Amino acid sequence: MFVGALVAVLANVALLVQGNKPPLPMLLALPVVALISYFPLVLNRTAANIEIAFDSCVLVFLLLVTGPLEAVAVWALASLVGQLVSGKRVSSMAFNIGLSTLAGAAMAWTATALNSLREISPGSLLAIAVGCAAYFVVDYVLTGISVALEEGLPTWTVLAQPTVLLALAAFVAIDSLGYLAAVVVRDRAVWVWVLLGVPVATILIATRALSRGHEHGRRLASLFDAAASMQSLPNRPA
């Protein structure tokens, strides 16, 4: 994803030119993104799966505690770190880094176009929700196109997943935890971070279990289909 890589480079260069450097607390987002990216929601397909990660809740947090340029720059670095420790193929890592950066820029642009995000208010929450939806659409559509090209299938058949609307709703809801984290930071109620970590961990574990359950169900269905095909073969004479 050349465009996403270009956005990442331009955002970080712009920070350096302006003499701005991300503060240390913002850089703590790097390991958090790497951790959350291990728990994606997987929409299973026959050959290749579409993964929807929830690490963008960190980007929501960054957008509310700093400017959009700084948020996208740190997000790009966090995506890089998360992919480097993922153990995936180089081509897959490059695609995911570019895709995450591009989708993150779409979220930042959409949310800040609707609201300044300088205050905690229903308006800023709505802007963040729309921005999260924009992130999901960019991520889902571009990933679906990539899968369609890889499998040689029509793009629409890949994108027309029966659970896509449910995944979108879950994505926006989980990313709203980044908004809640920003509220905690602004109110300086540091002790609430412990309470915030409980639902985050629960959601991530439940998402992992749901994805594995779907994968096991798909494999079991394939085994049943294979067994039925074997039984339908004509018996050879002895």
Walkthrough of the structure:
With 238 residues, the chain is mostly helical. The chain has one domain: Arp2/3 complex 21 kDa subunit ARPC3, CATH 1.10.1760. Helix content is 75%, strand content 3%. The chain contains ten helices and two strands, in the order αααββααααααα. The chain has a two-stranded antiparallel ribbon. A hairpin with a 6-residue loop joins β1 and β2 (50-52). The N and C termini lie far apart (59 Å).
Shape, please? Answer: globular
Counted up, domains total 1
Unreliable stretches covering 5 or more consecutive residues:
2-19
CATH architecture classification name: Orthogonal Bundle
Beta strand count: 2
> How many whole angstroms does the radius of gyration measure?
20 Å
Mean pLDDT: 75
Termini distance?
Answer: 59 Å
| Order of adjacent strands in the largest pleated sheet | 1-2
The helix content, as a percent range, equals over 70%
Which helices and strands, and how do they pair?
Layout: H1 2-18, H2 24-27, H3 29-36, E1 41-43, E2 50-52, H4 57-65, H5 68-84, H6 90-114, H7 122-151, H8 155-159, H9 164-186, H10 192-231
Antiparallel strand pairs: 1-2
Helix pairs in contact: 1-5, 1-6, 3-5, 4-5, 4-9, 5-6, 6-7, 7-9, 9-10
